[in-house]
Structure formats: C-alpha cells, structure tokens
Amino acid sequence: MSDNKEFDIADSRREYTRGGLRRADLTPEPLPLFEHWLKQACDARLADPTAMVVATVDERGQPFQRIVLLKHYDEKGLVFYTNLGSRKAQQLANNARISLLFPWHMLDRQVIVLGQAERLSTLEVMKYFTSRPKDSQIGAWVSQQSSRISARGVLESKFLELKQKFSNGEVPLPSFWGGFRVKVDSMEFWQGGEHRLHDRFIYQRDEAETETGWKIDRLAP
User: Fold this and answer.
1) What pLDDT does 29 receive?
2) Which domains are assigned to the chain?
3) Residue 181, annotated as binding a ligand
4) For residue 2, with 0-12 CB atoms within 10 Å meaning exposed, 13-18 middle and 19 or more buried, which class applies?
5) Is 60 one of the catalytic residues?
6) Are residues 167 and 195 in contact, defined by beta-carbon separation less than 8 angstroms?
7) Residue 69 marked as a ligand binder
8) pLDDT per residue over 154-205, tens digit each?
9) Phi, psi of 63 (to 5 degrees)
10) Model's pTM, two decimal places?
11) pLDDT digits over 61-88, tens only?
12) CB-based burial, 145-158: b 16+ in 10 Å, e otherwise
C-alpha cells in the first residue's frame, strides 16, 4: 500500500445533492419512470446514456460483466444485440438469468434490472441489422467475439477484405449474430442523497397481488 495521500482512496467521497426520490414521484409500473430517467440522462448529454453493464454467470457460477448498449425497450423488455458465439451469449444459453445496471453517475442515479433473457427472432434481428451503418454490419462479420486472436492486424485485414467483398451490394445478416430481450422481473431505482441517506425503490413483478402487476417497496440505503 502507498503512504502517499495523493493515492489514498479511502477518504474519497462527495455528497449527493441533486435531489431525492419520493414515493409521490413513482409511476405505477417501472417502465415509464425508467423512460423518464433515460430521457433526462440523454438531455443532460451524458456520455453513452444507453450504456448498461450486463452481468451473466458461467457454468461454475463465476459472474462476468461487460458494457453493452441498450437498443430498444418496451413493455416486453429491454433489448441488446451481440455475437451469438460471444461469452455472454453462451452463458445465457446455459443460464438465462441476467442483471443490467445503468450507471448514470453524473445525475447521482443508477437503475438495476433483474430478469430473464430470451433470444430475439430472426426477423427482429434482421430489422435492426439492416438499420446499422454498413461498416458496423461488416464489423459484425469480422469479429468472432471473445475468441483469441494473435494481433489487431488480423481484424483490420479481415475488415478490409470484407469491405471490398461487399462494396457493391448489401451485407447479409451473419448466422452467428443476434440479440436478446430481457424480460424484467425487478427494477430498482437509486437516487443519491445527502449524508448517504440515498433513496431506493424496487419494483417487483407480482401479478397475483396488485392491479398493476408490480409491487413497490422502499429499501434502506
């Protein structure tokens, strides 16, 4: 451990003073509140406001996390796309339980989602794939995500090769590229508060007991 106070992070802290979250601010279902917060993150010009940490576990129970961009959301769930040979896709094939985290630090906010991931249909994937810039489409062909490669030059050479191949036509959808929809089981909203008295509310799916299908509880910080 360093004795240099400049590198001592134990006392690194700040007060969260951007406001609170009260029960009166909540919506009966979580999606409208999520949409409101996401819009505010976009309006605040945060870097990558749709970026979310995606957590999965392997067959040994080892957690893995990575940042992925949210591409769509509605009442059916939250959607992201990936190489189906990637580590996260393989792990979801064995265990569909998933966690998402939206870290909107600049607004003193975070949203945590727990749910089940299901594969998107080929039609849904095709619709999104064809909307991507052509270079991004080619990039999907180039990268066998999570596989080992000897050097970056391997990727760059393959990209140039495929760019020439598809220069005069459409880029077809790779059979190994797809997406997932996360069906939400719970969604927690965290708003930083002064003196570490943060506001936390969790929505949990409970269709048997409430009119909206969601139970809402305040959690201690």
Assistant:
1) 96
2) 16-131+174-216 (2.30.110.10)
3) no
4) exposed
5) no
6) no
7) yes
8) 788 888 888 888 988 899 999 999 999 999 999 999 999 888 889 999 999 9
9) -75, 150
10) 0.88
11) 999 999 999 999 999 999 999 999 999 9
12) beeeeeeeeeeeeb
Marked catalytic residue, from 181, 196, 205, 218: 196
Residue 88 marked as a ligand binder: yes
User: Per the annotation, does 164 bind a ligand?
Assistant: no
pLDDT value of position 158: 83
What is the distance of C-alpha 118 from the center of its chain? 14
3-state secondary structure the chain: CCCCHHHCCCCCCCCCCCCCCCHHHCCCCHHHHHHHHHHHHHHCCCCCCCEEEEEEECCCCCEEEEEEECCEEECCEEEEEEECCCHHHHHHHHCCEEEEEEEEHHHCEEEEEEEEEEECCHHHHHHHHCCCCHHHHHHHHHCCCCCCCCCHHHHHHHHHHHHHHCCCCCCCCCCCEEEEEEEEEEEEEEECCHHHCCEEEEEEECCCCCCCCEEEEEECC
**pLDDT exceeds cutoff 90 at 147:** no
